[in-house]
Amino acid sequence: WMIPLLLVAVGLLGYGTAERLSVVQWGRDAGLDEATLQTAADETSDTGLTVMIVGLMALVIATRSLVRGLFLVYSQIWEVDVRRPRRIVRAIGVTLVGGILVVAILGAITALSGRGPVLLVTSGLAGVALTGAVVLTMSWVLPHRAGSILGLVPGSAVAVIGVVGLNVFGGLYFPQRLSDASATYGSVGFAL
Prior knowledge:
The mean pLDDT is 78. The protein contains 8 helices and no strands. Helix content is 80%, strand content 0%. By secondary structure, it is mainly alpha-helical. The two termini are 16 Å apart. The longest helix has 33 residues, at 153-185.
């Protein structure tokens, strides 16, 4: 799901200097190699719209596949027979918008991490709250047997702990690894 989202971001790199600089700045704050990002921005100046359209189409297809998989998993976990998933369009919309919001907020938190402890804690709590809201909403939209939304809170809380744990691990491990790969192998290393 992240690769199509990255295609959309790379497509946005091709539009104007201000957007290109902000994405390059975001990448630098996330620990990525600035030279590689600048090269990608320069190379997409002519094909930005095409890359963005392909990325958006791939993002919708990936989201649809993700939601269908989640429908199957949730129907098995909750032992609910779902032959024709209802509310799948709503679930796709919630996943698409919620996922993009979570990625954007977590990227902003990463960018704000060096700007003081109060801002870091505040943005971190906002990110956890947003992630919790998205997971709880997804749990409500997907098949379940809970009588009310409160019945979904414990499972959503465990899922949020898992997402936050993966985010912390990714924030500590991957930026250095991506920076080293970008510096050594260029664009191919960044893709790896």
